[in-house]
Amino acid sequence: MMSLSAVIIAKNEEEMITDCLDHLKFCDEVIVIDGKSEDRTVDIAKKMGAKVYQQPFTDFATARNFGLEKANGEWILYIDADERVGNDLRENMVRTIKEGIKEISAYKVQRKNYYFGNHQWPYIETLERLFKKEKLKGWYGVLHESPKVDGRIDVLGGFLMHYTHRDLHSMLEKTIVWSTTEAKLRYDASHPKMTWWRFPRVMISSFFQSYIIDKGYKAGTAGLVESIYQSFSMFVTYAKLWEKQQETKQ
To answer: What is the domain count for the chain?
Structure first.
């Protein structure tokens, strides 16, 4: 029977790692790539039987590739500490690996996002997360990483639950960290000079995408708060880009 390794990218996830690992007991091997956590993440993961490897976190692609090197399974499931494998997804995953369809090299999973606790976001994502190890050539991209797969990709039934943006404090911390990377990527790509009218344009576009196109309005107050936050996050990113452009002029 083919074996399955789960790879978790984590840093300071002591509140979420236990439940995540509980939902991965069906895997033959669980690996945690820890970005030098300062809390009890590593201790908890080791006590629960996971193999833990530590390295300073630079970007998700690097961390996922490191997990690819360490995994021994013929199949690899990538999952984050704030994600949970649903029962239907687990059963479909186990059956699919057991059957071993030769034509399929990887599978996308459907992900339900939950904000501020249990407020489900209407839009359901599909993400490449389950791979035949020999067919996964690596992950690429500093911020929005993507896998390179040799072969066909299909979609699994069932859902992955993602408990993201659990409170405003953690959301703001995340924006402060990642907006710097986002701004640098835009700056390095020679983004046009930031002028006053670009700010309302990107903020309105971001709000419209989240609240209207992705149907955030169906999530009630949580949907409105999240959509406004997305607009604010975009403002911070472009304000940092503007700041870098100003520094270059001096």
So the answer is: 2
pLDDT of residue 12: 93
- How far apart CA 136 and CA 151 sit, in angstroms, is 9
* Pair (232, 118) in one structural domain: no
Amino acid identity for residue 36 in this structure: K
Tell whether 129 and 182 lie within a shared domain: no
Give the per-residue pLDDT at 250: 61
Q: In this predicted model, what pLDDT tens digit does every residue of 18-65 receive, in sequence order?
A: 999 999 999 999 999 999 999 999 999 999 999 999 999 888 999 999
In DSSP notation, 202-232 reads HHHHHHHIIIIIT-GGGGHHHHHHHHHHHHH
Q: Which of 53, 21, 23 is nearest to 37 (CA)?
A: 53
Instruction: Based on the fold, state whether residues 173 and 134 are members of the same structural domain.
Output: no
**CA 110 to CA 170: how far, in whole Å?**
25
Distance, in Å, from the CA atom of 183 to the CA atom of 234, rounded to the nearest integer, reads 10
Residues 59 and 174 occupy one common structural domain: no
Residue 143: predicted pLDDT: 77
